Amino acid sequence: MVVIWILFLALLREPPCPGRAAAVPEPPGGAPRARRDAGGRGGVYEHLGGAPRRRKLYCATKYHLQIHPSGRINGTLEKNSAFSILEITAVDVGIVAIKGLFSGRYLAMNKRGRLYASESYNSECEFVERIHELGYNTYASRLYRTVPSRAGTKRKASAERLWYVSINGKGRPRRGFKTRRTQKSSLFLPRVLDNKDHEMESYNSECEFVERIHELGYNTYASRLYRTVPSRAGTKRKASAERLWYVSINGKGRPRRGFKTRRTQKSSLFLPRVLDNKDHEMVRLFHSSARFRESLLRAPSKNQRRRRGH
């Protein structure tokens, strides 16, 4: 019996074979599951991609965050402001891009910690979204932060600090390196749009179209809501199949009524084209020049309509 115990202890003390590694169990799917990143008590959204969330960001200082076409960022006390309607899109786990619906610009923070509205999407437009107590969120720059001071310097060593989107008590943006996660000015409550906001959007079910790709790269766009329904059995008219109503422009540049259109007609086929330099210049002028924007939105005169062939 003593010999058996000695052999058992010897086996326990024997080191593992160097040519063999212990197998680590993997989760289903092969790839290890990403850990939930949580800073302090708050967590992060783990959704990826998908449709943008349309929200208003209500700061704890009682201001709604606004993104202006001129590139300015500020807060407003107005409950229903067009420039406070935002599209929040997840671009990575816990990372979002915030775009003004009517300004067409992205919220961004530069290397000096200043908030601005960018015409195009870039790395300065990415923010870390975290959930905190009472439903408030914080939005910290993914690119910029205060790095710890090096050892040996006269200044006291400090921990790494994130730079947050922040609106002070006067509705003005604060510079990122002056912000803290616990400050009221850095806390935002994502608010769902109300009826007045939806009226400003001017969006309804009639604005939705079914996009189909056809031969030679052409697309068709059919109304999602309306179509020609088959005639009932027993009527004098010949039974017909259901037909979609397509967006269609005739040979004179005029729109055709949906129930007169067919999928195979040239007037219903559209080729999506990439914008050229002149198009991008027009977009830039529309967002930066109020005079140019008003001239485009103004109703054309009779002479202008005559020149255009209307």
From TrEMBL:
It comes from Zosterops borbonicus. The keyword Signal applies. Belongs to the heparin-binding growth factors family. Residues 1-21 form the signal peptide. PANTHER family: FIBROBLAST GROWTH FACTOR. Pfam families: FGF. One of its GO terms (molecular function) is growth factor activity. SMART domains: FGF. This is Fibroblast growth factor.
